[in-house]
Sequence to fold (334 residues):
Amino acid sequence: MTRTLPIEPLTAEAFAPFGQVIEADQARSFLINAGRTRRFDALAIADCGAGGAAALSIFRGTPWPVPVRIAMLERHPLGSQAFVPMQRHAWLVVVAERPAPQACRAFLARGDQGIQIARGVWHHPLLALQPVHDFLVVDRKGPADNSGDNLEEHHFPAGDEVLLAPV
Amino acid sequence: MTRTLPIEPLTAEAFAPFGQVIEADQARSFLINAGRTRRFDALAIADCGAGGAAALSIFRGTPWPVPVRIAMLERHPLGSQAFVPMQRHAWLVVVAERPAPQACRAFLARGDQGIQIARGVWHHPLLALQPVHDFLVVDRKGPADNSGDNLEEHHFPAGDEVLLAPV
Fold:
């Protein structure tokens, strides 16, 4: 069957089973640089596993056709993956505690909210809402001989899909 | 004496002695996510040294008084430090191959350009140009007992300073 998934606001509490929200509104911050910079410190720690390093990449996202059809999920068993908007546009996040249509949850991220998806957490590929939206991505770069081991995909059975409610 | 430092455009070539420019205009990119995302891959690799991990923080920068007076530099001997704008505003970078006024170089970064400062490279604290400008920062989080070892500061002698030319 086809389900329609409601869109939840992205909050640190709601996202906690899946990872961290990277945003500047938390109480744990302090001034540095002679008071000219406020540091919101260590909102996430990259988890790159043994033999991995944290790579900084840019993902240039484009929108999926509306209504967005969630037909597959992926996960990275060897490391975390963070997405932080480089322009202040809202975007969508779909994650799941197990790779099944009925487990999917969808969050609307504000343009000043990034996320770090914890190692091994199922998620949909990047869901931009603007024609072009750049994100800084921090994820694991491993030795060339095993980098392919850091991606698993799960495709839902035909007809058993999820449609996202309109934003 | 007081020197006035010209402002150079930020390019990967000019910045190479100091680290990497994190930007999406390089040839080495490829499509992922069924063609809906272009990945500009591994533009920088965080260098966190032994016992360190890559932490993701937000730095909320505010401007320095104009003309900007460069009176000190700092460096992080244990790891790299990356700055990536979360809003598309231009900003300034000051770096130096040694901690001396005559070694300083100033770069104007576009709003779609981040940088990673290599481990041990002298630099000025964040120089925002807008009233509020948020950056994602990726730098080393070490064990609590030695995190203070990752900062060295060098203050120039009084009167031997650098003023930035107007942007």
Notes: Chain A has one domain: 2-164. Chain A touches chain B through 48 residues (CB under 8 Å).
